[in-house]
Give the backbone structure.
Amino acid sequence: MVAQDKKGNPLWRCSGTLMSPTLFLTAGHCTEPPAAKVEIWFDADVESGIPGNGYPYKGQTGGKPYTHPQYDPNAFFRYDLGMVVLDRSRAVRMSQYGALPSLDVLDQLAQQRGLQNVTFTAVGYGLQRINPVFVEAARVRMLARPHLVQINTGFTGDFSILLSNNASTGGTCFGDSGGPNFIGDSNVIGGVTSFGINGNCAGTGGVYRVDRKDDLDWLATFGLFPQP
C-alpha cells in the first residue's frame, strides 16, 4: 500500500492484510495524518510491473485510512493499528481473507513450553537487505517464519511481542510495517509489523498485538470479529 496526501502525492509505503472485500488491516503509523487516502497493490512482484501497474499513484484498489483513536505518534508502538476502508466500487473478492485472533490468545501461546517453538508467518513488501553500504529494496512480497522471542516487553508493556529477525528464520524491515504476522501456518493474525530495534533490521522485530480487547473492540466498529 502507498499512503497519499489530499492531493494524491505519495507519502510512504507499507504492507497489510485484506480482511474482507472492503477492509484492509495495517499499522497505525501507516494510516496517520497527513495520509488522506491509500492505494493498494496485491501483485507478488509490484516492482516488475512499474509503470504499467500505476505504482505509486493508482493501485488495484484503494480507500480511506483510519487510525486507532488512541494512537500516539510519539509512542507509536502503543495502539499501532490502522484500517483502510476500500471504496465499494473497488471491492476485492478473494477465496480467503485474514482472520482476527480470539481475545488474549498470544498470552496462551507464551505459556507454552519453549518460546522458540511458537512460530509466525510474516508477510510484507519491505527491504530485503540493508547494511551501511548496500540496500536491497525491490517492491516484492516476501515471507518469513520468525519465532517468538519475548511477549509483553518491558519498553512497550502488553501491546507488543518481539519476533526473531535473522538469516535463519527471516524477519521484517522497513516497508513491512502493517503486514500480517499469522499465527503458525493459519490465516489468523496475531499482530501487525510495528517497529524495528535497530537501523539494520537485525536481531528482533516488534509486532503490535491485535488480540487485546481495545483493539478487537475498535475493529468491531468496522464489522470485524474474531473467528467463532
Q: What stands out?
A: The longest helix spans residues 213-220.
